[in-house]
């Protein structure tokens, strides 16, 4: 069972085909997706620092044993080199899945991602050349003790860049389906995995392969008075705050998971806010120029006449992640509850 009660009804739809289910946690679901990609397409490669040993969070566990060191292998400690190698592989028709050990270390690869990967298909023009199938996975976010170099959420830095797709799953079933869709995509994808969730929840996940649509948000709980837009780990905090607020204020609150942060699903968000008239955007990364800023601006442009209160943004404070104060730096259920209260009382 998922620790997020509103996720229980959010499994992918498979028609009438019987499916064999298992109940993995998030890192096991990612491992299953990687296994399927390697098993079904010999062009697939998985590589990164310590990947052959299973990785820091065990996402690539047993893959080197099953598929050999030519397809699952360790790289030097060079993020720029890892991403540059992935771009070259994809340009030659391979399906590279690169891992950056922590999202905090992606910055040396920023030039490769922004100036090379993101521009590749645009630069190729009518030739049809692309580096689709290139996926860069990276654990992100706070765990309560990561401090300066193991707790960052850099997703907003990449949502400014056309040509990249930015994806963040919330749960095991979502992670497997979104990762397989990312591998099949004709654009390079940055796949950010909230590391605090790797072992935090299990839910029923089909053993067979399936894909969930990229750039399509999901309404995980319907409501009438307030829309909360979030993604990744904060969805769990939103769930707790919603349960308390609905009980205390006698309202119903809609919860939307963006899933893909760029290009993101404006239509679903706007439809929700036009119905509820109130909006709160919650994310763990810094509030300054974060994903919430773009969502809030889009809501103001597309649903202004329906708004009953200003759009609120909740995010991490605009400061570095100090070890002792890490848990105070990111939104918690209390801050989200207070934002709901301010919104409904405005």
Q: What's the topology here?
A:
Blueprint: E1 21-22, H1 26-40, E2 44-48, H2 63-67, E3 72-74, H3 79-91, E4 95-99, H4 110-117, H5 120-124, E5 135-140, H6 155-158, E6 165-167, H7 172-184, E7 189-194, E8 205-206, E9 218-221, E10 226-230, H8 234-249, E11 253-257, E12 260-262, H9 266-276, E13 279-286, H10 291-303, E14 312-316, H11 326-329, H12 333-345
Parallel strand pairs: 2-3, 2-4, 4-5, 5-7, 6-7, 10-11, 10-13, 13-14
Antiparallel strand pairs: 1-8, 6-12, 9-11
Provide the helix percentage. 25-40%
Which sheet architecture does the biggest sheet show? Answer: 7 strands, mixed
Distance between the termini: 37 Å
According to CATH, what is the class of the largest domain? Alpha Beta
Structural class: alpha/beta
> What spatial order of strands do you see in the largest sheet?
3-2-4-5-7-6-12
Name of the CATH homologous superfamily of the largest domain: Thiamin diphosphate (ThDP)-binding fold, Pyr/PP domains
Q: Please, what is the average pLDDT?
A: 93
Quaternary status:
single chain
If helices are DSSP runs of H or I spanning 4 or more residues, what is the number of helices?
12
The CATH topology of the largest domain, please?
A: Rossmann fold
Give the tally of structural domains: 2
| Rg, nearest Å | 20 Å
Strand content: 15-25%
Order of SSEs: EHEHEHEHHEHEHEEEEHEEHEHEHH
- Shape descriptor reads globular
Low-confidence regions = 1-18
The CATH architecture category of the largest domain equals 3-Layer(aba) Sandwich
- Overall number of strands: 14
């Amino acid at each position: 069972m998922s620790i997020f009660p509103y996720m229980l009804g959010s499994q992918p739809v498979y028609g009438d085909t019987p499916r064999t289910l298992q109940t993995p946690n998030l890192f096991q679901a990612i491992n299953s997706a990687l296994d399927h990609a390697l098993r079904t397409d010999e062009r697939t490669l998985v590589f990164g620092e310590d990947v052959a040993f299973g990785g820091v969070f065990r996402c690539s566990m047993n893959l080197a044993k099953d598929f050999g060191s030519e397809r699952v292998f360790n790289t030097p400690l060079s993020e720029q080199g890892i991403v540059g190698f992935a771009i070259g592989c994809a340009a030659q028709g391979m399906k590279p899945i690169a891992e950056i050990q922590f999202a905090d270390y992606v910055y040396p690869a920023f030039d490769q991602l922004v100036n090379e990967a993101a521009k590749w298909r645009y630069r190729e023009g009518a030739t049809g050349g692309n580096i689709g199938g290139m996926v860069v996975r990276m654990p992100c976010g706070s765990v309560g003790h990561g401090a300066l170099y193991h707790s960052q959420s850099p997703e907003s830095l990449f949502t400014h860049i056309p040509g990249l797709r930015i994806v963040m799953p919330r749960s095991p079933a979502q992670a497997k389906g979104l990762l397989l869709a990312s591998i099949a995509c004709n654009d390079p994808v940055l796949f950010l995995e909230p590391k605090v969730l790797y072992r935090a929840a299990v839910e029923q996940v089909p053993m067979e392969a399936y894909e969930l649509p990229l750039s399509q948000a999901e309404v995980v709980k319907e409501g009438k008075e307030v829309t909360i837009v979030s993604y990744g780990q904060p969805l769990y905090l939103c769930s707790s705050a919603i349960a308390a607020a609905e009980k205390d204020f006698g309202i119903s609150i809609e919860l939307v998971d963006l899933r893909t942060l760029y290009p993101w699903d404006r239509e679903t968000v706007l439809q929700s806010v036009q119905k509820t008239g109130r909006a709160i955007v919650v994310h763990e990364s810094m509030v300054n120029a974060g994903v919430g800023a773009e969502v809030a601006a889009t809501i103001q442009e597309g649903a202004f006449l329906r708004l009953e209160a200003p759009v609120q943004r909740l995010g991490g404070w605009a400061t570095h992640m100090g070890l002792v104060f890490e848990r105070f730096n990111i939104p918690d259920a209390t801050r989200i509850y207070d934002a709901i209260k301010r919104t409904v009382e405005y």
